[in-house]
């Protein structure tokens, strides 16, 4: 790690101001950033910790929408969202290990947009809205390929609003080493249709499997997916699984998610 | 009633108090006044010619004390290989130089090029980034077959080949084996890979060296399993420091698994540099460095053939193995695929004709050397997989086929040059069948099938050879070291005892189990006895801990030394009691004149030894301290039978281990709890190898599995509760304790059980799959199921 300054503002305004400095970098839970710093892959002059900003914390549900403060940890989501959006709470409870869950945050995960992370699947399947210090970003506009989002330099995710589906489930097939998703599928059934989001598989990051959505919107059962396959083109291939294997897993896991949600 | 003290008691490990309360003293906990920090600049290419190194800018950076390159080591020795292999044609193996810092060429990713010594680690790292190294990249050889092809790039230009040796064992048997296979009723052939592993001890390697100019003494603190071996290799072969000017200390060591046996460049470097700059130098490996600089394990590609007669008796085994040496010969690398592998190819079976061929190959990868089991897991895996395949081909029960071919009479001389002293393979298999509830398997399989899963049962046997010896024999085989061990029993005036042992404990629990032996012999309380290990200035010249040798070899030395203590103490007691020493009996810590009530206590005798007022000074010397060196007359041969039950998800290919049973014969057992813990850990590592762990290079020699993000270590949730048993004990006949060694058994015995179980599960689902290479990952299982 190179040496750096660290500040821990207690208000959003102070955080935004601190991020205006040269080579400033926001630090949420640090589950990706800290290892990168240790590897000397990044050299920020100042880290702006977001963990002391009260207005970025917390879990609340109102009017069919679950709102998570951007700085809410996975552990808190796992505990406090269970009554409102059990599938999302279950997803949070299976990220990493207790140490990761007690540091990592929903805002950090969505800002990083790791192609194998869990939260992007939940956000995309739920049709969530990303709330930042300066605007609201619709899901359709937010993810822009792996590790790329609509966030501007210095923009902070202050909250994420998840519409609560009637039924939902997330099934993750873990990559054996990292325990990130080799493939993860989030299925969410709303009154007006079904959304299916797939993480871990595509070279473009999280994506919606629209054919499955159409089939499930008419008939929300695993059998509705019979005969549907995903093309391996554009899917990731690495030492843990070929693109063909990932394509196969998407079909298997989507069925399992539907069965778990039904 | 289980014993509550002495041999056979499950004493809790006394060392765990400090380990569990954070008060262990590991090498990284050692900081010396005025110390500097070292950072190695390592090659990021697998193969290349160094055309220039410019350190000028880096030297001028803050905190830099000195920057070293290969030039500083011209005229300094290279890292030696400890075992000379003679090939099939009587020629010595190719033995290339292994410089401390790269000279001329880099040969694997991670090969150290420069070392920056600075006042702080951060300054050392900063300066390393300012060094400009130009490397003309050369094509890399990674695949062993490609490395042996004509015109392949040469890892070592001056060797003229990438073949280190072509070893045949026993070469004189070759023709007879070929003929037996030609004439056999049935031959089962299997090609398989024994996957390359990274040992990953919890504590990475660390080395701290200091130099005392006043007396010209160097001290090296290092994460080693054998400090005296390091002192000898580094002092005599690399740096030219005589033993009396070199102290090597291996304090608490957080796991070794073989990878901390070897003499590494980094520890030689810090010792060298501390003398040059006259300041202490410290190096602590990062986890990333460990992946690319700790010696790796396994990495064999093998074709094995098992020939059977019409009655299913084994008649011959023939193997053809490529063994990866990596870019350089690590300390014991050459011996692993040969003497520690070929000698085990008889397994637990009467096979009259066996021939083992091993070609060791240089590649542009990290050196490969011993890893828990070292050669013996590779032998066991091939043999127990091919037997299972033969059973499937012949339509016979895999347990019955094994039982039919078991060695049942001991001693048994195998056709691969070793003689098993004892064993009872029928008894361990009987025990195993009882432990696994084979009769209930069909019902468990049905339950799995009702959930849409497949269930498989895999079993296998293993034999291992521990405590490599005797020294004169291994010397003839090419070993450049003795393989005895040593212990000094120092009885203090008040009767407490320090036992200085050549073995090193880095997880094995010697500090608990060794005193149990001495306490049993003397009849005194274990709390009066402490073990001292790991410091060459405190202990006799012993050979350290590896190959499950500590109790069988060093423990035997300790017994011999304690016997000398008893003999002398009886003379002192005889004098005090005015009786002949031959009439003195030692029981429960008291010396008694046989047949009388005249006695003196242990403490009376020990005090007399050091305050010899009433003492036979004309007959014996004062004091009570004895040393013994013990050189075993043979290996020990632990054996056992293992069973694994897996559940397999046919939709995803994911395999989970549901049940695991291990019936081991370790001979006599000193501390059953520690033995069971060793088996548990070994099985976890074996399951890790079978299902999860894989060290992967791409074709350019880049390490793809270079961190825990891609290298899958087994976790608690990956392993089941184990059923373990060591009641079928046939004590070793040639060491005083009758012990055999248990450290590696779990890692040797478990991989074939897991893979056999997977193949069985697939077969039950109608999938005719002969073999899946380890790790049997979900992707590989699914791919195999696709045909």
Automatic annotation (TrEMBL), chain A:
Key words, A-Z: FAD, Flavoprotein, Oxidoreductase
Gene Ontology molecular-function annotations: FAD binding; oxidoreductase activity
Gene3D superfamilies for the chain: 3.30.465.10, CO dehydrogenase flavoprotein, C-terminal domain, Uridine Diphospho-n-acetylenolpyruvylglucosamine Reductase, domain 2
Domain of life: Bacteria
PANTHER family, per database record: XANTHINE DEHYDROGENASE SUBUNIT C-RELATED (PTHR42659:SF2)
InterPro entries cross-referenced by the UniProt entry: CO_DH_flav_C (IPR005107), CO_DH_flav_C_dom_sf (IPR036683), Diverse_Substr_Oxidored (IPR051312), FAD-bd_PCMH (IPR016166), FAD-bd_PCMH-like_sf (IPR036318), FAD-bd_PCMH_sub1 (IPR016167), FAD-bd_PCMH_sub2 (IPR016169), Mopterin_DH_FAD-bd (IPR002346)
Protein name: Carbon-monoxide dehydrogenase medium subunit
Domain called FAD-binding PCMH-type: residue spans: 1-167
Automatic annotation (TrEMBL), chain B:
SUPFAM superfamilies tied to this protein: CO dehydrogenase molybdoprotein N-domain-like, Molybdenum cofactor-binding domain
SMART domains with a match to the protein in the record: Ald_Xan_dh_C
GO molecular function, a single term: oxidoreductase activity
Domain Aldehyde oxidase/xanthine dehydrogenase a/b hammerhead: 21-139
InterPro entries xref list: Ald_Oxase/Xan_DH_a/b, Ald_Oxase/Xan_DH_a/b_sf, Ald_Oxase/xanthine_DH-like, AldOxase/xan_DH_MoCoBD1, AldOxase/xan_DH_MoCoBD2, AldOxase/xan_DH_Mopterin-bd_sf
Protein keywords: Molybdenum, Oxidoreductase
Annotated Pfam families: Ald_Xan_dh_C, MoCoBD_1, MoCoBD_2
Name of the protein: Xanthine dehydrogenase, molybdenum binding subunit apoprotein
